[in-house]
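Researcher: Sequence recovery benchmark, item below. Answer with residues only.
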């Protein structure tokens, strides 16, 4: 059986298993539409799936995933802005109450940013969102430590960039929208949450 057949087998398991058990919920979501209260900005990484980490039900979280879970700064232009479009819909369309920027350990996108790949690739351009943040990383520590530092600092930068969007800043100021930073360690399955006061991460017990 090849890799794609595995997917179809998985689909059949879903259709006869979880989908059947949650049939009424799916029907209700189809009829009434979605109204998730939480938006998650996560990485594309196949090991850091927010729906699995938070054990969520369908309709519970509105998710956008991109390389290195980054939020770009607000910058309206005639270019294509996938993450900004999702953010706009989550905030102004769904009126979510919370946004979580979810980073993770061993992030390839963060590693690309650290290696300063200015090769004209889409990834190189995208992770240049962290160019300034990268300056704060101690270059004398090990590569592994630098990666972790930038993974954590990148979450802070994305939270900062979130409030450059007027529709986010308005709602944060009005107290109707809260911003959160989280970090998932793939090897241990541990979730760390960022303290907005001091930017430090602490393990969730
Ligand atoms: Zn990643």
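Model:
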């Amino acid at each position: 059986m090849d890799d794609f057949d595995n997917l179809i087998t998985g689909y059949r398991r879903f259709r006869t298993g979880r989908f059947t058990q949650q049939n009424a919920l799916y029907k209700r979501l189809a009829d009434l539409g979605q109204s998730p209260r939480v938006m998650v900005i996560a990485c594309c990484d196949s090991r850091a799936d927010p729906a699995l980490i938070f054990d969520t039900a369908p309709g519970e979280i509105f998710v956008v995933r991109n390389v290195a879970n980054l939020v770009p700064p607000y910058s309206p232009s005639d270019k294509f802005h996938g993450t900004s479009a999702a953010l706009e819909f989550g905030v102004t369309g769904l009126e979510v109450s919370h946004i979580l920027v979810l980073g993770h350990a061993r992030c390839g996108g963060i590693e690309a940013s650290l290696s300063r790949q200015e090769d004209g690739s889409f990834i190189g351009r995208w992770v240049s969102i962290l160019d300034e943040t990268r300056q704060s990383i101690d270059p004398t520590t090990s590569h592994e430590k630098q990666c972790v530092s930038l993974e954590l600092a990148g979450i802070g930068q994305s939270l900062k960039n979130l409030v450059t969007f007027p529709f986010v800043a308005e709602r944060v100021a009005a107290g109707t929208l809260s911003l959160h930073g989280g970090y998932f360690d793939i090897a241990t399955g541990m979730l760390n949450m960022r303290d907005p006061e001091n930017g430090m991460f602490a393990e969730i017990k």
